[in-house]
Amino acid sequence: MPTLSDRQISGPRPYRLPIRRALISVSNKSGLIPFAQALHAATVVLISTGGTARLLAEAGLPVTTVDTLTGYPEMLDGRVKTLHPVVHGGLLARRDLPEHMLALAQAGIDPIDLLVVNLYPFRETLATPGAAYQAVIENIDIGGPAMIRAAAKNHDGVAVVVDPEDYQTVLQELGQHQTSLTWPTRQQLAAKAFAHTAAYDGAIANFFHGLPAPSESGIDPAANTILPPSPAQVSPLPRVFSLQVQRRQELRYGENPHQQAAFYRDPFALGGGIANYEQLQGKELSFNNLADADAAWLCVQSFTDTACVIVKHANPCGVALADTVLAAYQRAFQTDPSSAFGGILALNQEVDLACAQAIGKQFAEVILAPGFSQEALTFFAKKTSLRILKIPAGPAENLASGLDIKRLTGGLLVQTPDWNRLTHNDMHCVTQKQPTEAQKKDLLFAWKVATWVKSNAIVFSKDAMTMGVGAGQMSRLDSARIAAIKAGHAGLSLHGTVVASDAFFPFRDGLDVVADAGAIAVVQPGGSVRDDEVIAAANERGIAMVFTGSRHFRH
Q1: 20 to 30 A from 122, CA-CA: which of 163, 187, 429, 447?
Q2: pLDDT tier, 9 (very low <50, low <70, confident <90, very high otherwise)
Q3: Where are the alpha helices (DSSP H) in 215-360?
Q4: How far apart are CA 74 and CA 83, in angstroms?
């Protein structure tokens, strides 16, 4: 393949690019008409295709259709319309090379200075309930990515816009520079364009790599036909996994000062997650702040009643439900005041002044909630270092979407989220003593909390309040002992409490520890080869015990 000469590679680049002709072909037509009107007012010639051209014409804008330029009508239901030398020559010709411009002139092709394109709604079609396989395939854009990549490659002479949010930025710069766009802007738009097509191709690749093998029953070799799979069968774990996330914030450092770090956001994440936080005040967030805040938010969002969760080093050290945010906070804090020092607080209701004043008596790193009253914000403003995060509302079920990802050396572990949906009906009593209705409620509460505690997890609770938490120990027995010790340090009696264990008790010794501490009911997954031994121990101690059949390891 021939290469460009040194002169061609290192020649000067235009800083300002006059915008005279724009090709517009968009699927997302948000904000399009005002943008096109402004371009027309700046004497930019508008070229367009299909539905976009009709929309511009209906708005009274003069528009030249692509088929008029190429001399070929759109073909194959619109599959072929911009794949033509008149289009790609106008996008790819280098303005600084006389031989390129001569070739355009000889072919009667005019340069295209601005490309405004976004792509067929592939993800949206795939996410539509009941979407047909062929409908998904037809929403794989071909001409759009080709044009975007051509314009982005040639950003010395072409500006490319793929996001309606950039319309205003482009118009402002055109106004500042006599209908020209600067090279830094063109380069930034090109970077965004390549990311756009990469994410689009990644989504398509994930779709194909997630499809099941065609069923033999859907194949008819004699008729040379096959029944395509349903998009609903696409696995969330494709054979080749493509991921694109956007850097939202560079952090001061990682878990430790010698590590570099940044926070990256999934642009397609559903609402309700911490990724959409708005920081209302406080110091810059750290790596550990965000990790702990996410753990706290996941835990608090698993409750529908008013709840408060206090997290320290990724573990809930206090969780409680109450009628008000103030009472929920006070009860959560009571579990372990020592560990709550410098903790992360999450509430699932708006924080009012009374709650803010109570929180103000302790040292907290971050407070996150779906909202804060103005009085609460005024109070918190006195604590200039305290970070306040507002998390936009969204269904808690959204937190069960997406994937959990952990990095290994040279690879990734990817899994679907562990979202706890246990109900009363899922608890199977295996002991002679049955839990009361009140105890069942507390068992469900403790089980939800244990889901978010690092394994091995033991959670004592009573009246919708954690009373002692043992986390992250190599032995479940040690977790049980630590939970009891912490309750004693906090001055809490464990008499009459219930206990949740995130995985089964491998021996009766752990059960004896929680019984000695005062527990009267236990919830655990079951499934140990010594289940009979543990059940017998519970009957011996007069404890009610229920099995869930599911565990919640969290590493």
Answers
A1: 187
A2: low
A3: 287-300, 325-335, 337-340, 353-359
A4: 10
Answer for the pair 299, 449: CB distance below 8 angstroms, yes or no. Answer: yes
- Residue 283 appears among annotated catalytic residues: no
Query: Considering the entire predicted model, what is its pTM?
Result: 0.84
Paired with 523 in beta bridges are: 500, 546
Contact 278, 390 (CB under 8 A): yes
Count Cα neighbours of 512 within 13 Å in the Cβ-side half-sphere: 8
The whole-number average pLDDT for the span 521-539 is 93
Helices (H), 42-117: 50-58, 66-70, 85-92, 98-107
- For residue 21, give the 3-state DSSP assignment: strand
Nearest to 199 by CA among 116, 122, 128: 122
398, two tokens: 């959204």
Locate 334 and state its tokens.
Answer: 């009571």
**CATH 3.40.50.1380 boundaries in the chain:** 14-208
**Around 410, how many Cα atoms within 13 Å sit in the side-chain half-sphere?**
0
Q: 274 with 396: CB under 8 angstroms?
A: no
Bridge-based pairing state of the strands 364-369 and 387-390: parallel
Q: Are the C-beta atoms of 258 and 274 separated by less than 8 Å?
A: no
Fold annotation for 424-547: Cytidine Deaminase; domain 2 (3.40.140)
Tokens encoding 199: 């994410």
**3-class secondary-structure state, position 3:** coil
Average pLDDT over residues 326-353: 95
Alpha carbons 547 and 535: distance in angstroms, whole number: 10
**CB atoms inside a 10 Å sphere around CB 64:** 14
Pairing mode of beta strands 458-461, 497-501 = antiparallel
The CATH number assigned to the domain with range 258-400 reads 3.40.140.20
Q: Which of 29, 177, 283, 313 is catalytic?
A: 313
> Tokens in use for 188?
């930034």
Is the pLDDT at 61 greater than 80? The verdict is yes
Tell me: pLDDT of 169 over 70. yes
Contacts of 379 (CB under 8 A, 6+ apart): 353, 356, 357, 360
Q: Determine whether 312 is an active site residue.
A: no
Instruction: Convert the pLDDT of each residue in 212-238 to its tens digit.
Output: 876 655 677 777 776 777 787 788 888
- What is the phi-psi region of residue 32: left when phi exceeds 0, alpha when psi lies from -120 to 50, beta otherwise? alpha
For residue range 402-446, list pLDDT tens digits in order: 788 888 889 989 888 888 778 878 889 999 999 999 999 999 999
pLDDT tens-digit map of 462-483:
999 999 999 989 999 999 999 9
- Of 29, 153, 283, 383, catalytic: 153
Query: Do residues 330 and 354 make contact, with C-beta atoms less than 8 angstroms apart?
Result: no
Q: For the residues 305-330, what does the mean pLDDT come to?
A: 96
CA separation, residue 270 to residues 199, 369, 526 (Å): 16, 17, 34
The Cα–Cα gap between 440 and 495 comes to: 16
Kindly report, as residue ranges, where domains of CATH 3.40.140.20 are found in the chain.
Answer: 258-400, 424-547
Rounded CA-CA distance 461/504 in Å is 18
**Residue at 469: amino acid letter:** V
CA 457 to chain centre: 27
Torsion of CA 37, 42, 44, 47, to 10 degrees: 0
